[in-house]
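Quick one, tokens below. Sequence please?
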């Protein structure tokens, strides 16, 4: 059974209700969720599931389930076993998620400042990085930081756009990442658009307006191999 991904329509949902579909050794499956599952370089969300009696079950990670479209909520050890059909309240660790949203959106801008194929990437609540297939001599930390912050200051909105698999096949230039391919097979692909700046497939969570990022600092640029020049960033505040 596929899980309804509420964050796809509203990444700012901090709580919601859902019903238990299954609870087993791998975690808890719900009919709907606000928790983003690990993927595309963005870690899975954390938070809690609250039972009708007030008992809180801590969720330490969220991952894609074995069945296509399902999401697995991984509880902390020692919690009570949930029953199928049980109604729960979902509470997101919002501070952590919002940091991930700001950094994820910042990486989209970084990929526009550094015009080169993206060979890898990763996001954590306190830092993020992209790897590029580019010569090290073309990477200047001061320039990258200034240009990225200038884009952030433009205060443009982010938008979700859907296209068909066939439309994406006709526009292969939209895919910037060499290591992560957009999810396919359901007939349509989700794009994130920042008007006049960026348009690319992405299933992650982003801020509504890039001004919410607040600014970034480039903390390190290093050589990670022939096709991997790593640029690491943190939020300015």
């Amino acid at each position: 059974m596929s899980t309804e991904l509420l964050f796809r329509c509203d990444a700012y949902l901090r709580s919601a209700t859902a019903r238990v579909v299954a609870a087993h050794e791998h975690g808890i499956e719900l009919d709907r969720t606000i928790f983003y599952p690990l993927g595309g370089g963005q870690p899975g969300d954390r938070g809690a599931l609250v039972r009708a009696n007030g008992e809180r079950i801590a969720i330490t990670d969220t991952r894609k389930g074995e069945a296509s479209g399902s999401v697995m909520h991984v509880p902390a050890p020692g919690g009570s076993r949930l029953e199928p059909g049980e109604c729960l309240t979902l509470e997101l660790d919002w501070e952590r998620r919002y940091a991930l949203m700001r950094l994820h959106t910042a990486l989209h801008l970084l990929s526009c400042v550094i015009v080169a194929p993206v060979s890898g990437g990763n996001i954590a609540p306190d830092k993020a990085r992209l790897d590029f297939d580019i010569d090290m001599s073309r990477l200047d930390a001061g320039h990258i930081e200034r240009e990225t912050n200038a884009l952030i200051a433009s205060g443009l909105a982010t938008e979700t756009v859907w296209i068909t698999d066939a439309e994406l096949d006709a526009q292969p230039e939209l895919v910037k990442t060499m290591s992560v391919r957009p999810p396919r097979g359901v007939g349509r692909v989700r794009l994130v658009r920042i008007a006049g700046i960026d348009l690319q497939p992405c299933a992650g969570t982003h801020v509504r307006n890039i001004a919410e990022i607040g600014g970034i600092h480039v903390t390190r640029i290093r050589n990670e191999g022939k096709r991997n020049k790593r640029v690491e960033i943190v939020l300015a505040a």
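The chain has two domains: 4-92, 97-235. The mean pLDDT is 92.
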